[in-house]
Specification:
about 160 residues; 3-stranded mixed beta sheet; two-stranded antiparallel sheet; about 25% helix
Length: about 160
């Protein structure tokens, strides 16, 4: 079966990161970077679909440093990885939300009580940390956040402010 295209790109049925129960088609993975780990300031985002095996993922995830949180997203068969080492790994019940960014255009109308904008400086990163700490979360390295925002094409930090 050939992949279907939609107005947003590849059909969701053929997206690498939305079908964790099956291996993605070779044409979608041939040019993909391997073993992708992104430092996020509070820990690392580990992109499971870029790893060829659970063994490689386990090795990376075991490298989580104290006072940090590493999160693995889009891994193939997450329940199998967790079942292999249940004393080390768990499946977080939190939701993650996806926005198909390649064609996204913000609505020009104001949202009402909230304004969403991109992070504009280290002062915004410091404000994020204050919220993280109030919520009992791991604070982030302000320099890493600001560097990611300025130099990493695939990372965008968004700030939501009361209007």
């Amino acid at each position: 079966m050939s992949p279907k295209r939609s107005r947003r790109g590849w059909d969701r049925d053929h997206a690498i990161s939305t079908t964790s129960w099956e291996r993605p088609p070779e044409h979608l993975t041939a040019d993909m970077d391997r073993n992708v780990v992104l430092e996020a300031g509070w820990g690392r985002l580990v992109f499971g679909q870029t790893f060829d095996s659970h063994e490689g993922l386990r090795e990376v995830l075991r490298g989580e440093q104290g006072g940090r949180r590493d999160i693995c997203l889009y891994l193939h068969d997450p329940h199998v990885l967790v079942a292999s080492q249940p004393q080390e790994f768990f499946i977080d019940p939190s939701y993650t939300y996806r926005m198909w960014m390649h064609r996204y255009r913000p609505d020009p109308r104001p949202a009402g009580t909230v304004n969403v904008r991109q992070l504009q400086g280290d002062h915004d990163a410091e404000a994020m940390n204050r919220i993280y700490l109030r919520c009992g979360m791991v604070p982030a390295d302000v320099d890493v956040i600001w560097d990611n925002q300025r130099t990493t094409r695939h990372v965008t930090y968004l700030i939501a402010e009361d209007t």
